[in-house]
Amino acid sequence: MPKKKGQMIASIASQEAIERFVEKVISAHITHQQNPRPWHVRMSPSDHHSIAKYARATDDLTVWLGERQDDPAVEVQIFF
Description:
Blueprint: H1 5-34, H2 45-48, H3 61-67
């Protein structure tokens, strides 16, 4: 049973879109090979952020949320 004309046109359009995408990927790959990005050394976040090893003071998050229960900006949603 032959495809309808509309299905054939959609199929051709889809194939052409795939071919354009493949051409873009190949072009990007060639460009990247010609101009490779320098590798970045992976570092620990503590190397470039000031992160304390121990908390000097702790806050109970449930108390803080309870104090702000009427604030719409602190609406708590629990998903189960």
